[in-house]
Design brief:
The protein is mainly alpha-helical. The protein is 50% helix and 11% strand. It has a domain at 32-158: Glycosyltransferase (Alpha/alpha barrel), CATH 1.50.10. Strand 7 (232-235) and strand 8 form a beta hairpin.
Length: 378
């Protein structure tokens, strides 16, 4: 006859099982993220390709990197693997450890589909490297971490430009951003503070914290009124207005405020960063709405921003202590929600900014002092 286990063993087994059951329940609850699920269904195909339906069905490396991050935050390893696999096979010549991904993929003139521009996008590559390293840590998948570190090493050798006697700058891509006169075109929204802090922790000998510190020191020149431009230029020994965009800020620059709002509150440098950008908050408070475009000066403010801009500003306003303006923007964003997506038509970029900004203030993830992402399921 089989002996039944004693009460002591049953109780011991229960204590082992309870944390596992609690963890499973927590993970299940944390992955209920309607905005992510709506984005996944509307913009990501079965292979893991993120499709920008409002721009000829194209795919950009930025979209793949963002979706990879959101899949990690949602604790969705199967979707993560699909996005990762598509990105590596189609954008990185089959090996992210050896190739930085092409930034643009879509339909060619002959009707075939493939890489349209093999140049890289440094912001996308940094998000890919960071997310892979974090996935390796959070999911205990060493291969992801190895790939992320190998990609990070490539970025360090091809996307960093130290100026003799001056700052260290981030090249937006491998080609096309340095002038014959030695000038360098910079995209401020490519500098993601908590990401660079995290990468420095991962790669102590890397240039990541130096890049961030030098960028922060240049902020008074880049945006003297706190209004960030999409692009700016380092020329000789100072920042000058980008001649192509004439100092206008819009779809790129809005991310600067998004990132600034995500840095941990206790970080003194973060407080200084947000303080340098508060002029933009004052501008929208005075206007009573978020414009689609602005300039580094007192002119050029125009248009009504799409829903994503409102979402991007939520972390920044939450951290800068303006609850009335925060609630105003949050209410406006909520009113743009149609069938689970934001805006009509629902555009890819708006949904991304919603997942970042609204996802952050709703508690789906945050970053710790070491720059590590802490998803709600952990």
């Amino acid at each position: 006859m089989m002996r039944m286990p004693g009460l002591r063993w049953l109780i011991a087994g229960l204590f082992v099982l309870l944390p596992l059951l609690a963890g499973a329940a927590t993970a299940k609850k944390a992955t209920a993220w309607p905005d992510w699920q709506a984005f996944d269904e509307a913009f990501i195909d079965a292979q893991g390709r993120v499709i920008d339906w409002t721009d000829h069905g194209r795919t950009v490396s930025e979209a793949q990197a963002y979706a990879l991050f959101f899949a990690l935050v949602a604790n969705d390893p199967s979707r993560f693997a699909q996005i990762y696999d598509w990105t590596e096979r189609n954008l990185a010549k089959g090996d992210l450890r050896k190739s930085r991904p092409a930034w643009l993929w879509g339909e060619r003139d002959d009707g075939s589909w493939g890489v349209l521009d093999a140049n890289s996008a440094t912001d996308a590559d940094l998000w890919l490297a960071y997310t892979l390293i974090e996935a390796g840590r959070l999911w205990h998948k060493p291969d992801y971490g190895l790939t992320g570190r190998a990609l990070l090493a490539q970025i360090a050798t091809s996307a960093v430009a130290p100026i003799p006697g001056g700052p260290m700058l981030m090249l937006p891509g491998q080609q096309g951003f340095t002038g014959s006169d030695g000038s360098i075109r910079i995209n401020p929204s490519y500098y993601v503070p908590m990401q660079l802090i995290g990468l420095q922790s991962e790669d102590p000998k890397g240039p990541w914290l130096r890049l961030l510190n030098d960028y922060a020191a240049l902020l008074p020149q880049i945006a003297p009124l706190g209004r960030m431009p999409d692009w700016t230029v380092w020329h000789t020994d100072r920042i000058v207005v980008d001649p192509t965009t004439a100092g206008v800020g819009s779809y790129d620059a809005i991310r600067v405020y998004l990132w600034a709002g995500m840095v941990p509150l206790a970080d003194a440098d973060a407080r200084r960063l947000r303080g340098a950008l508060n002029g933009y908050r004052d501008m929208i408070r005075e206007l009573g709405h978020v414009p689609e475009r602005w300039s580094t000066g007192n002119s050029g403010i125009s248009g009504d921003a799409p829903p994503g801009f409102y979402a991007a500003l939520l972390p920044f306003l939450q951290r800068s202590g303006d609850p009335a303006l925060y609630e105003q923007l949050r209410q406006h964003l909520d009113e743009t929600r149609v069938d689970g997506l934001y805006g009509k038509p629902a555009r890819y970029y708006d949904q991304v900014l919603v997942l970042f900004g609204k996802g952050f203030v709703d508690g789906h993830y945050h970053f710790d002092a070491k720059g590590r992402v802490i998803p709600s399921w952990q």
